[in-house]
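Issue 218. Parser rejects a valid record. Input:
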Amino acid sequence: MSRGPGQPTRGRARREGNGRRESLSAGEMRTMARERLIESRLTPNAISLTGFVLIVVAAVLVTQELFVLGGLAFIVGSVMDMLDGRYSRMSGKGTPFGAFLDSSLDRIEEGVVLTAVAAYFAKTGDQLAVAGATLTIVGSLMVSYTRARAEALGVECKVGFADRPTRVVILSIGLLFASGAGIADFELLEPAIYVMAALTTVTVLQRIFHVRGELAKT
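Output the parser choked on:
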């Protein structure tokens, strides 16, 4: 089918320049958008801090048993936290302090939300779930610590089931389908906590044995 004279070609944009028409491919448009973003005043630290604020908001919403809103805030905040590292590398705006701040906020964010979850279970009198949430907090911190300590020894340590994206997905599902959230008739927050507690514990053990094996080779 022929296109009318004013109808643009699919997947390409037209712009005027020096009296002539030039076509921009989708790749060129993405490159231009990336360059404008890099030239902007947006910094990786600003992304990290915005994500941190959203995570704190999520924790507050969880304490008020507004699980869907809390889950959505947690998801958006976590996505922003995962994007700051990519933006840092892409823009060249990353700094050693920025990397330190990002890692520190990562640990705080997860702990804050899990603490709010533990407080909710304590209010409902579910002591087993409180213990599960507490174990998950310790396990999540240890998953990150074992990797950092291993890398300080010169050993790459990314093994294990419960990396941060996996933990974010599991906790997000738990929050969105918590008791009283209204999305479904079943409750997934407590099972999600038990799954995270088990996976983080196993991952810590996997990393300990992995590092032991790697160091034994040297």
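Fixed in the parser; the record now loads. Strands lie at 13-17, 20-24.
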